[in-house]
Structures are given as C-alpha cells and as structure tokens.
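Example 3.2
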Amino acid sequence: MRDGTPLTGDFGQRLRHLRTRAVLSQEALSHAAGVSVRALADMERGRTRGPQRRTVQVLAEALGLDDAEAADLEKSAAVGRPRPRTADGPAAPGTLALPRDIKDFTARGPALAGLLELARDPGPDRPGVSVVAGQPGLGKTAFAVHAAHRLAPHFPDGQFALDLHGMDPEPTTPRDALARLLSALGIADAAIPAGTDDRAGLWRSMTGDRRMLLLLDNAVDESQVGPLLPGAGPALTIVTSRHSLAGLESVHRTDLALLRREEAVELLTRIIGPERVRAEAQAARDLADLCGHLPLAVRIAGQRLLSRPHERLSKLVARLAAEGRRLDGLQAGSLRVRAAFALSYRQLPTDTRTFLRRAALAAGADFSPETGALLAGLSYDDAVACAEELTDAGLLQSDAGAERYRFHDLLRLYAAEQVAIEDGPEIRDAALDRTTRWMLRRATAAALHFDVEHEGSPPGGAYDGDPDPDGAPAGREEARAWLEAERAQWLAALRRAHDTGRHQQVLDAAQAMHWFSDLNQHWEQWVEVFQRSADSARLLGSRRDEAIHLNYLAWSYNMCVHDPHSALTSADAALAAARDCGDGLQEGWALGYGAGALHRQGLVPEAQARLRAGADCLASQKSAQARLAELTILNSLGTLLRQAGQPVEALETHRRSERICRAGIPGRTDELIALYHAVARQQIGNDLAALERWSEAEPPLRQALAAFETAQMPAWAGPARLDLGHVLSAMGHPEARATLLAARDDLTGLRSPRQAEAAAALSALDEATTAR
C-alpha cells in the first residue's frame, strides 16, 4: 500500500488511520458519507466491528480510496461480521433482510427528514422508536421500507425487517417474532429460550450496543410490539400499524397525510411516464382528485394505466367519475383499494362496524357523534367510543378543534357499500328517518332562539320541542354554533322530510329559520329551504302558509343568490296566494319583495309603485307584525327614492320610519325595535350623505354599525361599514381607509355584490391620497 497500511487488521483502527490520513474530522467524514458521527465513533472504538457492505462503500467513497484500498477496507469489515450458519454454528444475520425499495417512491420529504434526524444522533434522551400509523392506503409500509434503505448507512450493524401480520386472523405472536429476530442475529435454534420473557431479555441484551435498524411492519397492538423493542442503545426501530399504538411511551411519531394534488400527479408521472401525463395534464389532475390523493389508489390507477400503454387517462377518469363504479375501477392485479379497507373493517367489533358503515349515510364533509349515534342506533357515549376506536384504527379522521369526524372519500364509498350489503333498504331507510326526525326537531328548537316574534314554537305548527332537552343548545351562541356545524345534516333532514311527505315538519323548521336566515344572508341554501317549505305548504293546501313561504323564497332569491327574476316570480306567486286568502300582511310583504326584485332589474318606477302600494296596504293593518313590515317597506322606499335622485323625500320617508320606532310597537321587544331603528338610522345617514351633509351623516351611520355588530349580524354590518367609509372618505377622516378596508374584507367574505364598490372606493381614496 502507498502509506504502508497493513492489508488486514482491526476495522476500527484502519478506519481511524484512513480518516486521519485524509485530514478529516469525524464530523467532516459523517457529512461526506451520510453516516452519523456516533456510528463512526462506535466503529473506530471497536464497538461496531463489522459494518454492512453498503456502509463500507459510502465510507470508501468519502475517503477517496482507490479500488484496492476499498477492497482492503471491506475485507477488514468482513472479519468482524458474524459467520454463516454451519451445521452446529450460529445463523447468519440478514435472514430478515429489508424488502425491495420502490424506485418511484414520491414525496414524504418532511417525514423522511424527521427519521434522518433521529438516525444521525438518537442521543440518550431521544426515542429509539418511530411509529408510522394511519388509515389504509397511505403507503405506510412503502414509506418505512424506503426510509430504512435511506437510513441504512447510519446503522452498520445491520437492518432487519419483520412482518407482524397485524391484519391477519392470527397475527404473529411476540414469542414467534422474537425467535425469528434472535435467529437473524445468529443465535442457533437450540440456544433460543422457550419463554417469551426470556427471549425478550436475550434480544435486549444482544441489541443493547448495536447500531442496527429494525422495521416492524403491520403491527396489531402495543402488546405485540413491546417485547420486540430493543432496550437502551443506539438501535432505531420503525413500527408501522393501522392503529395509533397510543400506549407506546417515549416514541417518535411519523404522521403521513394524504398526498397533495401535485404530489399525487408526480407519483402518477413516475409510474406511467411524463409523456402521457403531459399529453393529458388536466385528466391527470382529475384522476388524482378521484383517487382522493390516497397513495394506494393513485398507485393502482398508475399500474392499471401502465399495463395499458395505449389507454387514455381521460377514459379512466370517466370510469372513476361514477361513484358506484369507482372502487371497481381502482384495482390492478392483486392491488385493490376495496381489499385494503376490508382488512381493517373485518377486524372491528360489531357495533363499531355498524357505526362506520351507517356514518357513511351522514350528509356533509364531516359528522358529529350525535349523528353517528342516530344512524347506528347507539347511545351517544357508545357512539363516541366507536368513533375514537375508528380514529385509532385510521378509519376516521378527527377534527382538530371539535368533536367531529370525517371519512376519506373512498372509504366512505366502501362503507356505503357495506350498508347496502349488510343492512338493506329497510334498515337504511329506518336509520335515515330516525335521524331526520331528530335533526329537524333540534334544528327547529335551535332556530327559535333567534325568533323574536314567537317565543318557543312556530305559529300554527305541530312542533313538540327539542328531542333531547338536557343536551340542547342553551342560548343563542350555542344555537348558532350547532346550526352552523350541522348545516349539511339538518338541510338533508329537511330534504328527506319533504320528499317523504312530512310537510308540517318542513313548515315548522323553515318558519323557525326565518329570523336566523337574516343573520346568514350569504348562505345560498336558504333558497332550497324556502322552496321546499313553500312546496310543502302548497301540498298541505294552506294558501296562507304558501304566501308566507313564497315571500321567504322571494327574499332568499333577492338577498342570498341575487337572482331578481326568480325573486319576482316568487313574489308574484306570494301576492296571488295572499289575496286569495285575504291576508293583508303577506300582501304587503309580497309587494315589498316584488319591488326589490324590480329595482334590481333596473325598473325603478315600477319598484316605487309597488313599495307605495305595500306601505298603504300595511298602514291599514293593525297588528304589530304589520308595523314591522311597514318599517321595512318604508326603509326600502326611502332608499329607492334616494337612489332615484330624490334625497329630500327619501330623508322624510326614513324619518317617518324612525318615528314609528321611537313610538314603539306593543308586544315587541326593545331589542327588536332597536334593530329596525338601526336600519332607519343607516338610511338617514345615507340620505344626509346624498345631500352632502357629511358631518350630520357620520353619527347615525356609526350608531347603525354599532347596533348591527352588537346583534352579531355581519350581513347587515358589512354594508353599514361601507356606507360609513364613504362618508369618512368624503370628510378626509383619518379612519376612512381602515373602515373601507374592513368593509371590503367583510363584503368579500359575505360574497356581497357590494364588494366591488368597496374595492373601488378604497382605490379611489388611495389615488386621492397619492395625488396630494
């Protein structure tokens, strides 16, 4: 040799000599070779006498050795490795070799980085165990195998992989697993103790000072894994499981999420090639979405396309777009998404299986334990226990801040299939009907917290209270939270009640929602709510109820989806129904809603005529409800007059409205009158602004905005803030820009047509400021 280094000898001494000759510190060699400093120190001290061939190769490359020197270093390492099994001798290590790595492995960078950090320097206070858990199809095993290959240079004493068969009817016992591990370390069969505890003790004693990597794949639970974990020492164990293994203490947890869309497309590209993906880029993105970005599903789709090189991606997209055929389409040879889900489903207890499949009937992106309990026919506490068990098993994902759960899209399809197979239509319909009745009663009770006219029950209905008074929302804030969280569920219940002929329940729920809908004008589903309630009223033969709910429908077309043509059709139908039954109150409302629709279509004279007719109709009515309706009509008329260039007449009309508010309305709360008064004050401020009486306009607008914010009515506060911003801008007030900016953000969140007006006002203010 060129420096006289002997051809044979202790590996650690040779390594130290070669590193010193190369003028490298252990840290520098670690960085160059990708082998941790601790592993290098163990080799040089002789604690690791026979590192694996791959580790020796990366060290030789980092040290710049020629072929002869590299071969000599390998020979010295081979001397320290256990010898192959003979008739009476020890077994050769490596009988539990790592599975083949997947060359097209994609993404998971942060998760890999976390494991690499553990491998480089586990340290005395760092966990030597990493648990990779999660739902079926996330690619846990593929990730763990890929990570093990990447980490191999850091563990020169060997890498071992053992499948624990956690999804099999009879998973591997700890005793049998320990026998295989000890055999892989070179312990003769005759020398392996008989008992599990003795085997575990021998395993820990043999692995205590070894820098080895252990992959325990497909674990069933903590009791299976615990005896297999090395004790204190430099080893690293990676455990994969469909269960969270929450009982394992002091472990590092690797959380695998669904792929991002671009990552799913990248995986598809690596499988079938970039040319096919570039040729159908949108189809590739659609395919990733239909696979739910689940790695297993994307891989199956890719393998299927790979086996059919002339098939277009769009053809598979069309097949998978049909939900009923999606799981059938996601299979390629032995790879099947349905089979992956079935393995986990079959292991669940009976009640938990019932909960999982029935939960697939829930509406919306997520569901509460309450909904799951109703569908499954379980108590609330049992439903919570099932949901938590399913979360631990990776079959449901829990919300980070609320007690709500969601499916992966493909798993929901699988669960729905099981409903059809195991329950059948009669049990399914009974579950849905039970849930519908309960949900609509709760939704009605919650909405009535906002009904200032009818305390406790909708007028004329058969509503019989909350189905669970002890668990019902208490007060407006809890009611609002429940109605928002369960929006998809109670809407689905309303839809089913309508379709199955329970029309009075539909009317009661929609009537109770009337005031609550005012607080959430940006919810487009109000059109469906009041379309169905109007239809239910017609089917029940009540022209008065039909007029009421057609008026609500006209309101929703005007205010929620900004469709004045449909609003006018509904208002005209409400007007005809009201006149048929002689209901002057509903006639006045219908004239007002029709005027709003005409105004939005640019038919200002016609709108003014209807508003004047509506005000006259309502003025002749004596009820408190008529006074409230008159206030609304007068405010609308005044607004229209101002916009038509008649601000003086508009101001007088709005002051008339204000006088009604100040006089009070018998039987109506101060809180309710304050809201109507705030609307009048807002319009008075706008009238004064139209007259360029800016300093007089500011106070009523501020008062109106404060009232809407106190009442937590963002749909009303946003426009009022914009009106105030216009006035402050005209005054050169220092708060103008902040007010307009907040108004723009509010109106954008509400999807209000006035968001463009706010943006334009803000831009004009900025330009004026720059010009100064």
